[in-house]
Write a structure and sequence with these properties.
This protein has seven helices and two strands. It has 181 residues and is mainly α. 28% of the residues are buried.
Amino acid sequence: MLVKESLVLMSRYNTWMNQRLYETVQVLKPDEFVQDRKAFFGSICGTLNHLVVADTIWLKRFASHSEDFTALDAVRHVSTPSALNQILFAELNALRDYRQSLDSIIEQWVDSLVETDLDSVLHYTNMKGVTTKKILGQVLLHFFNHQTHHRGQVTTLLTQCGLDMGATDLLLLIPDQALAE
């Protein structure tokens, strides 16, 4: 499978999982949503905010890579978060709306990419001020892996609250192939 096709699959998986995750989180009472659960980002709210913070930072980096990435125009004017633990939205509905907006942008952008984009070198400065150069396609693998990692943390926190969002495997989105006879 080509890298582009894999990334399109990951963008669809990302949207699907975020929709399911937020549907499950919606059941929580507001105080349960913000309760410190001793996770790396404290609460479910903190962890979900970390994901939108990191995604915003990465999307802005990707947008600065090429003006040809017009699907990222919507994030070019968004303020860059100042810290990875910044709470952009303490209220679930606003956070969910922003998440849905980001997921739509991610899908549109990944759909617009071509293989040569994925082979290009992304120059960026990280949150510690270190300038880095990495292959864009490989950074996108990190981008989606990061989201999966932290969604896994949230599903654990939800399980501790007695909530189960069911199977979360990427395999569920991979279509069956007809066997050649």
